[in-house]
Every structure is written in C-alpha cells, then in structure tokens.
Design brief:
The structure holds 3 protein chains of 3 kinds.
Chain A lengths: L4 H10 L6 H18 L34 H5 L5 E2 L2 E5 L4
Antiparallel strand pairs in A: 1-2
Helix pairs in contact in A: 1-2
Chain B lengths: L5 E3 L2 E14 L38 H13 L7 E2 L2 E4 L9 E4 L9 E6 L5 E13 L3 E3 L6 E5 L6 E7 L6 H18 L11 E10 L9 E6 L2 H20 L8 E5 L4 E4 L12 E2 L6 E2 L2 H9 L5 H12 L3 H7 L3 H12 L3 H19 L10 H12 L5 H14 L3 H8 L7 H14 L1 H8 L5 H12 L6 H13 L1
Parallel strand pairs in B: 12-13
Antiparallel strand pairs in B: 1-2, 2-10, 2-11, 3-16, 4-5, 4-15, 6-7, 7-10, 8-9, 11-12, 13-14
Helix pairs in contact in B: 2-3, 5-6, 5-7, 7-8, 7-9, 9-10, 12-14, 12-15, 14-15
Chain C lengths: L8 H9 L5 H19 L2 E4 L1 H16 L10 E5 L26 H8 L3 E6 L38 H8 L5 E6 L5 H7 L2 E4 L19 E6 L2 H11 L29 E5 L9 H16 L3 E5 L7 H16 L17 H12 L2 H14 L5 H24 L2 E5 L15 H5 L6 H6 L3 E8 L5 E7 L5 H15 L14
Helix pairs in contact in C: 2-3, 5-6, 7-15, 9-11, 9-12
The chains are: A mainly alpha, B alpha+beta, C alpha/beta.
Chain lengths: 95, 485, 495
C-alpha cells in the first residue's frame, strides 16, 4: 500500500481541508499505515455477501405530506457568522 | 419527414440527443422536512433546521413525494422499483447546506419507460426513458446584491425533484423540443409537476453529440440548466454546429458541462476549476432503504387521471373531432376540461368550432389563459345553447361573446339588454322583405330574368333592415317564396 | 446536613421522594463539587450551574406536591454532543465553539420531561472521535483514578470521557454518553462506572451531533446498573424525527434487576481470547465467568469468527460516514468561519483550522475509502464484512442468551502513554466495536482493579432490544464483584 502526497492533497481538496505541508506529510505516513492495516479485510471471503445497509431493525418510515416546520427564519439565521438581512452570505461566487 | 442533418464540409452529420429533466415534485412540504414548498416566500422562511443542515438534524421521507414519483413512473409506462435507496452525493457548494445532496444513485425508484412524441408532420416516435429518481433541490445563490458577497436563500433547499433521464434517442432539435413538451404535458396531467419552466420547476440538462451516419457515439457535452423549450432547441442547434466545426477542423470534443447563453447565442464551458468531481456516492445512513408494496402501486395506478393519449382517443370518439382538433384541445388538461364542460351540454360540433375559433381568439386578444378566462365554460355553453335553440343567430352570437368578454355579463343578459333576440315572426320578416322588394323593383326584375346571384343581395338587405336579428333560415325561405311568387 | 456523595441516583431519587433530601441541597452540593474539582478534572466544557440551582427549587416544589417524573431533581451531566436549546453545544471542536442550538435533542428532551436537572455540558473527544478524550479542543480530561504510587494524569477513555469522569468523581449522579465503537463502554471501564450502549434505534439520534450515523447510539453512564436502568428508561423511546429509530415500547428496566440469570446461557466468544490479551484481563474475564456460573447461568463457548476484522471494518464504515457527516461544518450557517476571498478558500481555511488533527485524519481517510476507484475495495468490502459480523452474532444467539467479554484490553493509561501510532490507539476498541457494527446492545460493568490499582470492566453483549437481560446479568455481576472503590479525586473526599 503506497499513498503519495498527491493523493493526500486530492483528498484534502475533495473534503475542503486546508492543510499545511507538515500536515500533508504526517497524514501521508499515518494514512498509509492505517490503509495497510485495513488491508487484512482482503482475507475475508465476501462472495455472495450483500453489504449491510441499516440493521434490518426498522424499515423506511414515510411522513405525511404536511407543512409542520419552517417559518423560523431567526432560528435558522441565529448562528450565522455573517448574515445580511434575511440571507446567509459567502464570498462572491463567480459563475 | 426527412432526417435532420448538419451539412458539414466533410459531409452530413447526425445529432444524438439525450435529456435529463429535473422536475419539481408537487407536494406541500419538502422531500425530507416539514417546511413548505410554496414558491415566492421571503428568503429563508420556508426553511427548517433540517434544510439548513444544523448539527444532529435528520431527514424523514415525505410519502407524497414517493407517490408522485410512482405516479410519474406509471404515466411514463415505466418499471416501478419496489426497492429503492437514497444515497449521498458529496460535494461542496454555497447553496448545498449538508455538503451532500440526497439522491438515488444505484437504486432509483423508477426504471425503464417510454414517451411517445409527435412531430409537426404528424409522425410519431418513441423516446426511451432510462430512469427516474428522487432527489433534493439546492438553495439559491444571489450574486447581484453586493460587490463582494453572494447571498444564500435556502427556501428551495430540500424541495423534492424528480430527475427523469431519457435514452439518447433523439436525433433533432425538434424531437428534443417535442419530448420536453410531451413530458411536461404528461407531468401536468398527472399533477406531479406544474411544469412551469419560467419559475424553474422544470429544467433540462441536454446531452449532445454528433456523428457520421453508421458511426458509434462520439464524445458528448452536457448543457446544464436549460429552462425553456425554445432554449433547448436553440442550444442543441448551436452546440451541434460547434461540435461539427471542431471535428471537421481536426480537433476533438472534450466531455464537459457547458452553459447556454441565449443572449450571445453560444454555449461555453463551465469547467471553471481544475479538479474533477468525485461525488463519493454511498447509501445515506440516516435513511433506510425504501420498500414499497405492489398493492400500493396498484392503488395509485387505479387512481391515475386520464393521460393525454387516452384523452385524445376518447374525445375523438365521443365528440367526433379530428386528430388535429383533439391534439389542440388536449394540449393542456384544463383546456380539455373546459372543452368537455362546454361540449357535454351543447352541440359538440358547434362547441368545437366555437372554442377553437372565437373563444381562443378572445383569449389571445385579451392575453388571458384558460384559468383566468373571462368567460366560464358554463357561460359559453349558455351562449351556444342560444344559437342551438335559435334564440340568436351565429353572427349575433359573436357580438354577444365580445360583450361577455368585456362586461362579464351572461349571454342571456346581453341578449335581453340589447334586444338581440332573433326575429322568428313570419309576419315581421315578410313585411320587411316586402319593403325591400318594393324598393328594389329593378333588381327583382333582373333576378326574375335569371340573375340568381342577386338572391344574396336581397338576404343582405333584409338582415340589414332587421339589424341582423332575423333568423337567417327563415329569411331565406320567405324570400324564395315571395320572389318566386 | 452535609452531603456525602455516597448516594446512587436511585437512592437520591428515593430520598427526594421521601423528602429526606431536597433537590436544592442535592443540586447545590453537586454544583459545589463541580466548582471545587472540575478546574482540575476538566470534565465540563460548559457549566449551567445557576440555571440548575433555579431548577432545583422548582423541582422541590413539584416534589412537594407529590408530583414529578422519573428523575425530578436529579443532577445530571450531558455529553456535549447533544444539542441543548440555548446552551452552547460544541462537540469539543473549535469549529462549533460558539454554537448555540435553537433546539433540544430528543434524548435530553426526554430527560428534561422526567424532571432531570443538567449541570452542564461534558467534555469528549472532538466529534466523539477518539478513545482517550485527548482530542478535545477544550483540553483533555483527567481520570480521577490514580495508579498506585503515581500521580501521573490518566486518560479517562473516550469519547465520552467527560461523562465518565463527572460520574466517577461524584460531580453528577449520571450522564448521557454516546457510543459509536465503544465510547460509552470503554470510558466507563476506565473510570470504574457502569454504562450501556442500547440497541441501535433504541434512543433517538435527533439533535445529537453525528459522528457515524449507522453506529451512533446514545446511552446512560452512571454509578451502577440500577442507575443506568432508570436513566435508559427515561432517555429511550421511538422518535418519528429519526428514520432509524425503532418503534418499540420501552420496558420498565428497573423492575428486571432482581430477576437473576438462572438457566440463562452465557456465550464466551473464543475469538476474544487474542494472543495479546493480558493475563490480568484474562483472569478478570474468568472471574466473571465463575460469578455468572455461580448465579446459575450455563456457560457455553461460542464463536464470532470475524471478530478480528471488526476494527478495520469499523474504521472504514465509521470514517466514510463521518467524512460526509462533517461536510456541513463549512462556516456558512453556523459555527466558526475563517474569512477568505473566495468560497473555496473560506471552506478550506475554516475546516483546516476549525477541525483538530484526529478529525482531519478521519475525514481524509473517510474521503479516501469512498473515492472513485477505492469504493469497492474499501467501503463496499467493509459493509459486506459487516454483514458477516452481524451474522456471527445472530448465529451465536442461537446458542446463548447473552455474551460475556472484557470491555477493553487494558485499564486507563497515563496521558503521555498514548501511542503515537493511530492504529495502536484504535486497538483500544477491539472488544467494543463488534457489538456496534452489529447494532446489538452492550454494557460495561466495573469488575475489579488492575494490579496498578485502576478499574477494569467486563462487557455484556445482548440480543437486539434485549437490554433487560443485560440489566439482569449486569446486576448479578455487580453484586458479585462488589466494586465499592472510590477514585482518588472524588467529591466526597475533602481536598
């Protein structure tokens, strides 16, 4: 299992984590170690095994189509680090 | 119809088109939260803490959205999957609060289906549906309010969308346009999407590629978020032309997403960032797989409204109308409903002619739609009844309709008020005719001398004298009797 | 009267009902203990002592009328992963250091409905990711226990380290915890208290900050089995706002305690006897077996053949989910924001600076195992192995009624003894993750002291929704073990 710095940077980019060069190199080593360790799963025969989704303890439950929520603009905006009137804001997005 | 071909320097090119249509589901609340879906509210008011993805908030699936997807699937004659699943599509964007969109990737609720389209020359074609799945809409970014910031409104975030994916079965811009129109018509009939493209409740991603006859598919480009039928047609024309030029100049078309700019009349690349997307789909652990019962699907099927094709066939049969007439009268469900409401209690032929003629013209002239028609179906039926029972004649009826549009009064009120009731009193008509004949003795002589054409002149003079209110059939009969006497 | 901090939650409840003790006295004593000891222990991130004192007076009024719920007047602590309306909720992360939820989690709502009084929000590993409580952005927590002849600070375990310490040191009568791979059981064992992770779906996850959604489960941590039974009954219950919550009645757990385990079959999983298992843990486990046998249970050897794959399976599944669950911390709608010129820079700076080292490592790994080209090899494979692990338990329960195993491979260790290799840290969870992966309930009960003088726990693992058998067996174990030791740092010990 070899994992290069480029891959770490790619993962950091996908997950929007700004990392210092030191962090990249530390994570590279650690991730390599962890991924090497999880490779023991390759020993397991998974032929014809279906992946676990949920615990089979419940089935999807559907909600009635009623308006029961919303209309809480202040609550929704109460923690916004930068708001403008009724809006959240972000640095200008150029499309 | 001759096939659509782009004439290049190296010969003819065929266009291959597939569409992904995003249709907003008609429901009261959002796909996974109890916030309202109503359009046009104050920013961030139709937002729950679930929609804003606050820590610890969890999605709960809306049963009606599932039912709407199933109804749509049935309307597209598609496979309904009793097992489906919600997956997370991971990416960051300002108007995507969770950092992922909940969608159905691996197991959509609806599988293969078909839509029949009809082209302008009456030719019919089947367009394959690959799948339909449910997903969340994103919020809205507003870019023009501040020099350095974009504003985020999450009212739309979490509203249910159906993504309807077609096979790459279309071969001309016209077909693509006809497909979108047909799809919209079906969704509207089903009541599963209002089809309002201006408000964004229906939009299309258009996949376009070109190829020489007999070739395999070449690289396609995806034109994102096209929001009218006209733009779909234009975007395809422009994009196909662009691709032909690239191939013919020895270049290659890159697979990418593009944006259609209708003002500049061009498509341009949206690939603004260096990184390719990797959505890392995986089953959403907050939601369990969706299993629905066949019996429930059956009950939804039994309750489906009549779809456009069925309605056309029935109207043709019940009211004796032509294929053209049925296609116009079923274009929208409410037009068909209006028509039937009028035609049921009236002379069907008269109703068809009047609705397709004077009534549509009146709507056009006043810029109204059928929903806010100034004349109700009942009102129009009353007017036609007055023609049928000879209370007024057709010419007067046109005048009455105009008055109805203007004043909103009923036909009988207008006829009463203006004294437009048709004169059917033989004596009065005879007296009027006699006056005309007396005053035009020379013409009577000519007529008798063999100039048959003058009969029309006498009819016209009589009607004029009687201010149009005479029963035309009676005028004819009496005139003949008196002239031939 | 001066309060001696020797009452269990059940005893305090009874004393309150009998009016031998007032809620004001009880809460005041605990608030003072927090003020006296927690500067050092650091088990609280946010204290709500003034509010608690006011609520105590109201609780007395209720009790005076002979009214009240299961927990009226009882001082509790809440792991700072449960959203509490109007009270800062941080998940022990800088990224949420100023977050004040406008909502209350279902679990804490249930506790409040029963009259509980919260003294504050308890420390944990950042976003519940860790087993030492050293990854908290608000500093580590000190285990009130000491090794013999050493004053070294010990870790309390994690991630519910603050909860375990607050209970063990007598600062609260009980606390909420959450358990994703052992985060209730392991710190309970390290701190000499009792904790139960109920069946997945038993407690609502609504309003609890997610680490790994398919594994996270809330549960109580308290002085003993009875206290846990009382607390779980109050916390648990169906919640329509959590799609994975299971619609099942919550039994009156306390009533099952004295029922014994005569005739029940206890499974001893042979795969848990790993090569590295210390003699001390082995001996404790054997002792536990004898106690249960003496109580009339039948001991049967069982096999959970995929045990050794539990940890890697757990880490893949949990980290994949976590990488996605933590995407919402982006500096836009709540939490910390590091200003920047572009949206992407804002995301990267906010998340890069807002999350700690362990959280970032886990997000990177989780992103990796889901990414294109690796999904099948890691995530999908792990979910298939997870199916096999779950099947192991179902097979085992054909032969036994519950399982006995150690909770952790060792007792608490010193802060500076934490291994630097993440894999070595992860190995702490070796005995706890299989139950989490299967979703079955599991409880840790203090069963003895190590040769170094720190507590060790034994773990009971049950059938789906059969927490009752765990309470019965846990009670038997507790009576037999007669674990009445007190840690060095304790509210009842004058400073």
């Amino acid at each position: 299992m070899s994992l290069d710095a480029k891959t770490v940077l790619k993962m950091a980019r996908l997950s929007r984590l700004g990392l210092s060069p030191e962090e990249v190199s530390t994570y590279q080593k650690e991730m390599q170690g962890i991924l090497g360790w999880v490779e023991q799963l390759n020993e397991v025969d998974i032929t014809n095994v279906s992946p676990m989704v949920g615990t089979d303890l419940a089935r999807a439950r559907l909600r009635e189509d009623l308006v029961t929520d919303g209309d809480c603009q202040e609550a929704v905006l109460s923690n916004a680090p930068d708001r403008e009137g009724p809006f959240y804001t972000v640095p200008k997005v150029v499309e | 119809m001759s096939a659509y071909r782009i004439q290049g320097e190296t010969g003819e090119w065929e266009v291959v088109i597939g569409l992904e249509v995003h249709a907003q589901v008609v429901s009261r609340s959002k796909l996974f939260s109890g916030a309202s879906t109503e359009f046009g509210a104050e920013p961030n008011t139709h937002v729950s803490l679930v929609d804003a993805a606050f820590p610890g908030m969890l999605p709960v699936l809306n049963a009606e959205c599932v039912a709407q997807a199933v109804r749509t699937g049935l309307g597209l004659k598609a496979q309904i999957n009793l097992f489906s699943r919600f997956d997370r599509k991971n990416y960051f964007y300002a108007d995507l609060p969770q950092g992922y969109q909940i969608s159905q990737f691996e197991f959509p609720i609806v599988g293969k289906g078909v839509v029949e389209i009809e082209l302008s020359d009456g030719e019919k074609r089947d367009i394959g549906i690959t799948r339909l799945h449910l997903e969340q809409d994103a919020g809205k970014s507003i870019h023009d309010q501040d020099p350095t910031r974009s504003f985020i409104d999450l009212n739309r975030a979490g509203v249910a969308l159906m993504e309807i994916v077609s096979e790459p079965d279309m071969r001309s811009p016209e077909e693509a346009g006809a497909y979108v129109r047909k799809l919209r018509q079906i969704l509207r009939y089903l009541g599963t999407c209002d089809g309002n493209m201006e408000e964004g409740s229906m939009r299309a991603d258009v996949n376009v590629s070109v190829r020489k006859a007999g070739e395999d598919y070449r690289t396609r480009c995806e034109i994102k978020n096209v929001n009218s039928v006209r733009y779909v047609v234009q975007a395809i024309e422009i994009e196909a032309q662009r691709q032909v030029e690239i191939w013919e100049s020895g270049g290659t078309v890159d697979q990418e997403t593009r944006l259609f700019d209708h003002i500049k009349g061009e498509t341009r690349s949206m690939r603004s960032k260096e990184d390719a997307h990797d959505y890392r789909y995986f089953p959403d652990p907050d939601l369990l797989p969706l299993e629905i019962e066949q019996s429930w699907v059956d009950s939804l099927k039994a309750a489906l409204p009549e779809l456009p094709e069925e309605k056309r066939a029935r109207l043709e049969k019940e009211y004796g109308i032509s294929a053209y007439e049925s296609s116009v009268l079923t274009a929208e469900q409410n037009i068909a409903d209006f028509y039937e409401e009028v035609a049921k209690g009236a002379d069907a032929r008269l109703a068809t002619n009047w609705i397709m003629g004077d009534f549509f013209a009146a709507l056009n002239r006043t810029g109204r739609s059928i929903e806010d028609s100034p004349v109700s179906a009942k009102g129009l039926r009353e007017l036609l009844g007055l023609i049928s029972d000879s209370t007024i004649n057709g010419k007067i009826a046109k005048e009455v309709l105009e008055d109805m549009v203007e004043t909103g009064a009923s036909a009988s009120e207008i006829v009463e008020r203006k004294g437009l009731k048709q004169v059917t009193d033989t004596g009065a008509i005879e007296a009027s005719i006699q006056e005309i004949l007396d005053a035009n003795a020379d013409k009577v002589a000519e007529y008798k001398g063999g100039k048959d054409k003058l009969f029309g002149f006498f009819v016209g003079q009589t009607m004029k004298a009687m201010k149009g209110k005479a029963n035309p059939a009676m005028v004819n009969d009496l005139l003949k009797k008196l002239l031939d006497a | 009267m001066s309060y001696h901090f020797d009452l269990t939650l059940a005893q305090a409840r009874d004393a309150l009902k009998a009016k031998k003790l007032s809620a004001v006295e009880l809460v005041k004593a605990h608030c003072e203990a927090v003020e006296r000891l927690d500067g050092r222990l650091n088990s609280f991130i946010t204290r709500t002592l003034d509010q608690a004192r006011e609520q105590a007076a109201a609780a007395d009024a209720t009790l005076q009328k002979g009214e009240g719920g299961l927990l009226t007047g009882i001082p509790l602590g809440v792991k700072d992963l449960f959203a509490t309306k109007g009270v800062r909720t941080t998940a022990a992360s800088h990224i949420l250091e100023n977050f004040v939820p406008p909502y209350e989690s279902t679990v804490t709502t249930n506790l409040l409905r029963e009259g509980a009084i919260f003294l504050g929000k308890l420390n944990l590993d950042e976003f519940a990711m860790g087993s030492t409580n050293l990854t908290s952005a608000f500093g580590g927590v000190e285990n009130p226990w000491k090794k013999k002849d050493s004053d070294a600070r010990l870790v309390p375990g994690g991630s519910s380290g603050g909860s375990a310490v607050a209970v063990a040191a007598g600062l609260v009568l009980g606390a909420t915890g959450t358990d994703t791979g052992g985060s209730i059981r392991q710190p309970s064992a390290y701190c000499g208290i009792t904790g139960i992770k109920p069946t997945y779906g038993r407690c609502s996850r609504f309003g609890t900050i997610a680490f790994a959604s398919s594994l996270d489960q809330a549960g109580p941590m308290a002085r003993n089995v009875q206290d846990c039974a009382i607390l779980l009954e109050a916390m648990a219950g169906f919640d329509p706002r959590d799609s994975t919550s299971v619609e099942k009645d919550v039994p009156h757990y306390e009533a099952t305690l004295g029922q014994g385990i005569k005739g029940l079959r206890v499974g001893i999983p042979k795969e848990y006897r790993t090569d590295g298992l210390s003699e001390e843990i082995q001996a404790l486990w054997d002792q536990g077996i004898s106690w249960l046998r003496a109580a009339g249970a039948e001991i049967v050897e069982i096999s959970l053949p995929h045990t050794k794959y539990g940890l890697p399976t757990y880490y893949i599944a949990a980290l994949a989910e976590a990488s996605s669950n933590l995407s919402r911390y982006d500096g836009v709608r709540f939490g910390k924001r590091v200003p920047a010129k572009s949206l992407d820079e804002l995301y990267e700076a906010t998340r890069g600076q807002g999350f700690g080292e362990e959280v970032k490592r886990r997000i990177l790994l989780g992103t990796y195992v889901l990414s294109s080209g690796y999904y099948d090899a890691y995530y999908l494979r792990a979910q298939k192995v997870r199916t096999l692990i779950k099947q192991d338990f179902l097979n085992a329960y054909e032969k036994c009624d519950f399982i006995l195993a150690p909770t952790a491979p060792s007792g608490a260790f010193a802060w500076d003894e934490k291994p630097t290799d993440p894999v070595q840290v992860y190995l702490n969870d070796i005995f706890t993750v299989p139950a989490s992966l299967a979703g079955v309930p599991a409880m840790s009960v203090p069963a003895g002291l190590s040769h170094e003088g720190v507590p060790l726990g034994l773990q009971l693992i049950g059938r789906y929704f059969d927490e009752e058998t765990l309470f019965r067996a846990g009670y038997v174990l507790e009576q037999a073990a007669a674990f009445h030791h007190r840690p060095t740092l304790h509210a009842g010990v004058s400073a």
